[in-house]
Write a structure and sequence with these properties.
Rossmann fold; 8 strands; globular; alpha/beta; NAD(P)H dehydrogenase (Quinone); single chain; oxidoreductase; two-stranded antiparallel sheet
Length: 278
């Protein structure tokens, strides 16, 4: 299988750098083809602007969405954007690897998403009507592919627990997993998270490496997080709001993940996770 690793850390000798190198070797040893987009090494341009559309007229008012739509449809995207889109088309699985900085991904990776997920590629796809609201959240250009986050954080694991001061790690990563990944169609696997990474010794590194290796070995075996598809009957269209009999009494992020209990026929075919999502 083909795996794209999009990696964001400025120091190759960091823990992240070591884990990235390990990931590439482990996947290749397992017979997979691997490409790496090392954003800092590439000097990736993070800002989305008029330069991303090579035929944008000087002095014209810049509308990011319309410019992105025009450039994608007319083949006038900047070469770096088109190249990353080709990598995503090639890939059967995507790994986003990054340190958790200020409760999210580094700015350079956010800029990769903003520029590569062009209108017509990452969003703005499909029919918008009273029956469907686009090909998104379980559908889209990247449907049928898998994705997983590999995240490091300096905070302790309890800090990101259900009652931890930083908030549950599931909640912090929800906008990335449900939005950045599930929105354009990826099947999203539970994340791999390494905590308290500024205190890692050799023995702890080996433990983290071994755990990551098992997750990489199981990349095509692990059940994805059972996010609710938008157009499968759980949501009213075009409001895109859960129907009253879906997860009654539950709101927030948890409502958009199907429980293991049968809820209604329209969602009964969504597989329950093989492991607890934590």
């Amino acid at each position: 299988m083909n795996v794209l690793v999009v990696y964001a850390h400025p120091e190759p000798r960091s823990l992240n750098g070591s884990l990235k190198d390990f990931t590439v070797k482990r996947l290749q040893d397992n017979g997979h083809a691997v490409q790496v987009s090392d954003l800092y090494a590439m000097d990736w341009k993070a800002s989305l602007d008029a330069a991303d559309c090579t035929d944008w007229q000087p002095g014209a008012r810049f509308n990011p969405s319309l410019a992105s739509k025009h450039a994608y449809a007319n083949g006038s995207q900047s070469e770096d954007i088109a190249r990353e889109q080709d990598k995503l088309r090639w890939a059967d699985a995507l790994i986003l690897q990054f340190p958790l900085w200020w409760f999210s991904m580094p700015a350079i990776m956010k800029g990769w998403v903003e520029r590569v997920y062009a209108y017509g590629f990452g969003y703005g796809v499909g029919e918008h009507s009273d029956a469907r609201w686009g090909d998104r959240y379980g559908e889209g250009m990247l449907a049928g592919k898998r994705a997983m986050l590999v995240v490091t954080t300096g905070g302790w694991e309890p800090h990101y627990g259900p009652r931890g001061i930083n908030g549950p790690i599931d909640d912090l990563l929800f906008p990335i997993q449900h939005g950045t990944l599930y929105y354009p169609g990826f099947d999203v696997l539970p994340p791999f998270v390494a905590y308290r990474t500024d205190r890692i010794d050799d023995a702890q590194f080996l433990e983290i490496r071994d755990r990551l290796g098992q997750r990489l070995d199981d990349l095509w075996k692990t059940a994805p997080i059972p996010f609710r598809p938008q157009n499968a009957g759980a949501y009213s269209i075009p409001d895109c709001t859960l129907l009253p009999d879906i997860a009654p009494g539950i709101s927030g992020f948890a409502a958009h993940i199907a429980s293991e209990e049968p809820e209604r026929a329209a969602t009964a075919d969504i597989a329950a996770p093989a492991m607890q999502y934590a």
